Amino acid sequence: MLKIAFVGWRGMVGSVLMGRMVEEKDFSGFEPTFFTTSNVGGKGPDIGLEIPPLKDAYDTKLLSSMDIVVTCQGGDYTKKVYPEMRKMGWQGYWIDSASALRMEDDSIIVLDPVNRAVIDRGLSTGIKTYVGGNCTVSLMLMALAGLYSHGLVEWISTMTYQAASGAGANNMKELASQMAVLGLVSKDLLDDPASTAIEIDALITKEIRKSSFPVEYFGVPLAASLIPWIDSAMPSGQTREEWKGSVESNKILQNEKIIPVDGICVRVGAMRCHSQAFAIKLNRDVPLDEIAEMIKNANEWVELVPNDKEPTLNRLTPAAVNGTLSVPVGRLRKMLMGPEYIAAFTCGDQLLWGAAEPIRRILKIIIQHLS
Ligand code: HSE
Fold first, then answer.
1. pTM of this prediction?
2. Could you say which of 125, 314, 328, 339 is the most buried, measured as most Cβ atoms within 10 Å of its Cβ?
3. 369 catalytic residue (yes or no)
4. Which atom of ligand 1 is nearest to the CA of 163?
C-alpha cells in the first residue's frame, strides 16, 4: 500500500485540503501518516480513520520511507527539507502548495483542468515534483482556459482585487478586527437616524488613522481602504505577485510562445475570494457569443454570468463565491479599443481552486499513476 505523508495539514490551506479530502472520501487505498513541526506525538486530524500519533516533520529518514509527501507547511519548510531528501536519494513524489519550487526546471505547476496534458507528460518522463500555482494565476487560468485552449490569447492585463486570506490567517483575522473596530466606533451615529454619512466618514477616517488601529499584519488599514501592493518589489517595477502572473501562467501551460500577463495586484477587504478584471487582447476578431461558448465549455467549474446587473450582483462577487468551487466569469464584452479587445471579470475562492483543490487532485492523479 502506498505510504503518503501529510505535512502542514493544520494551517489554512492544509485544513481546507483535509476538509476537501474528507468530503470527497479521498482517504482510502493508501496509508496516511501525519507530520508536525511543533507537536510530535500529538493527535492528527479527524479524517474518520484511526491514525498514529504525529511524527516529526524534520525526520527526513522517516519521510524518505514515504512514496509521496504532501506539504502545505510553507516555503521555509520546503527549502529546508526538500533538498535534504533529494540529496539522500529519495525518489518519491513531492507535492507542495508553497511557491519555493514552482520555477525549478524539474517541477510542474499543477492545475489539471487546465494542464492535464503537461502533468501526464511529466509523470511519464519521471518528474517527481508537483507544485500548486499562485492563487491569482490559477484562478485566472481556470476562468480563461477556453480562450487559451483555442490559441486566441495575445496578451492579458489583469487588475486584481485580492482577499485577505492570500496574505495569511492572521491577516484575515486582522481584517475582521478592523471591521469590528469601525462598527463599534460608528455605532452611536449609525443608531441615530439624524446622523449624516459625512459625519460617519469623518469618524471612520479618524479611527483608521489612529496608532491604536489594528494593523500589525497588514501594516496599514485594509477595512475602509485598500492596498495596491502585494509581496516584494521586483526590478521590473512589478510586485512579485504581478511578476508571477506571466511566468507562472506560461510555465503552467508550457506555451511555446510566451503570452504576456501583467497588471496591478491590489489587496481589498474580501475574506478569501480573489477577483480579477481582465483586458484581453485576442489575436483575431471572434464574435462575442463564440467567445462566451469557449469560456463556458472549458471546464465544469466555470460559470458564465450574463453581462446584466442582476446576475452580476448576485453571482459575480466574493460574497456569492466564497467557500465554493465555482469560478464565475462575467462582464464579458468587447472593449472600445477594437474588436479583438475583450473585457471580463472573475471571482474565485483563493483557498479552494487557488490553493487546496489542485493539490488534492494531483495527489489523486499520482496515486492513479502509481497503481
Ligand atoms: N500571494 C497570494 C496573495 C496568495 O497574496 O493573495 C498566495 O497565492
1. 0.97
2. 328
3. no
4. 6
